[in-house]
């Protein structure tokens, strides 16, 4: 059955992707690139790639062991190859299927891959893909027991969660569409009390952060975080981050994860994964990279489009 991929659409596709990433995380504590919460966060918007569905390989119990996920992020699509450790005979087949799917898409395609994935890199190079930008950090990790204390907010600023005021317009609606609150509520890992914002003295949104607690892997993910320009350097981000990490720990998360190594995270104690880096591959045309988002080194790793 593992050699017979199936195409799945709708909520079932997200359920399978979630289950596969959870299985991968349990198999390798620092393996892969993504958490299950990442793909749930990507579902906050309707995307053209949703119509075609995603491709999965299932085992005898109908549980996912591999997948090819295509996600339209705007000017380009991202192609992710997921293979459960312990399935070495399947990996090259999945990579080849991913390249075939990418070639059928009417968008430039970027393929993130770990630097310690020789099979994936070999298949991409054989198909004419080349690195698009510098290699970059995959993730930063912090034990929940080592999380920083929560600093106070400046006078006049207030912390709110989505659970405190569910009727308020969602602070991410401006960048992610009016349906973002509704679509987030459909995600199995979303919790309103972990959807945080800081309100400025004038009632406007000063910053926000979304924190994801995975009860299966006991990993807490920070994705996304933002401080509005007029409220930067006032401790908003530090307060949001520390509060969110506290709440993740209270939800039972033992390990905490971020997707880049910006100073905010390093000050909080996160340490970048050193065993591998992330590289984005794309097809090169007429001597230049396919148009699309900035390379990994220029964005919050692995994808700025996922951090808004």
Model description:
This protein is α+β, with helices and mostly antiparallel strands. It folds into two domains: 6-137 and 274-306, Gcn5-related N-acetyltransferase (GNAT) (Aminopeptidase, 3-Layer(aba) Sandwich); 140-272, Gcn5-related N-acetyltransferase (GNAT) (Aminopeptidase, 3-Layer(aba) Sandwich), CATH 3.40.630.30. Helix content is 26%, strand content 26%. The strands form two sheets. Strands 1, 2, 3, 4, 5, 6, 14 and 15 form an eight-stranded mixed sheet that branches. The chain has a seven-stranded mixed sheet with strand order 8-9-10-11-12-7-13, with helices on both faces. The protein contains eight helices and 15 strands. It is globular. Residues 286-307 have low confidence and may be disordered. Helix 1 (11-27) packs antiparallel against helix 2 (36-42). Helix 7 (236-250) links the parallel strand 11 and strand 12 (255-258).
């Amino acid at each position: 059955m593992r050699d017979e991929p199936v195409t799945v659409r709708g909520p079932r596709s997200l359920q399978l992707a979630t289950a596969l990433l959870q299985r991968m995380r349990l198999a390798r504590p620092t393996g892969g690139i993504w958490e299950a919460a990442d793909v749930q966060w990507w579902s906050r918007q309707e995307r053209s790639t949703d119509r075609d569905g995603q491709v999965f390989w299932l085992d005898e119990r109908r549980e996912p062991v591999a997948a090819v996920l295509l996600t339209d992020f705007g000017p380009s699509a991202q192609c992710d190859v997921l293979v459960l450790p312990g399935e070495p005979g399947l990996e090259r087949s999945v990579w080849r299927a991913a390249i075939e799917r990418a070639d059928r898409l009417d968008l430039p395609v970027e393929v993130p891959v770990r630097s310690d994935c020789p099979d994936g890199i070999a298949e991409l190079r054989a198909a004419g893909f080349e690195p698009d930008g510098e290699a970059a950090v995959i993730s930063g990790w912090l034990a929940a027991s080592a999380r920083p204390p929560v600093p106070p907010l400046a006078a006049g600023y207030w912390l709110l969660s989505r659970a405190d005021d569910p009727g308020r317009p969602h602070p991410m609606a401006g960048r992610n569409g009016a349906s973002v609150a509704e679509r987030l509520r459909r995600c199995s890992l979303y919790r309103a009390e972990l959807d945080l914002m800081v309100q400025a003295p004038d009632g406007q949104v000063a910053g926000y952060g979304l924190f994801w607690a995975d009860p299966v892997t006991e990993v807490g993910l920070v994705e996304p975080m933002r401080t509005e320009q007029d409220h930067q350097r006032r401790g908003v981000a530090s307060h949001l981050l520390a509060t969110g990490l506290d709440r993740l720990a209270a939800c039972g998360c033992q390990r905490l994860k971020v997707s880049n190594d910006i100073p905010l995270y390093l000050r909080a104690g996160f340490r970048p994964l050193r065993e591998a880096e992330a590289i984005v591959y794309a097809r090169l045309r007429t001597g230049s990279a396919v148009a699309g988002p900035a390379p990994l080194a220029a964005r919050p790793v692995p994808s700025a489009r996922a951090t808004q």
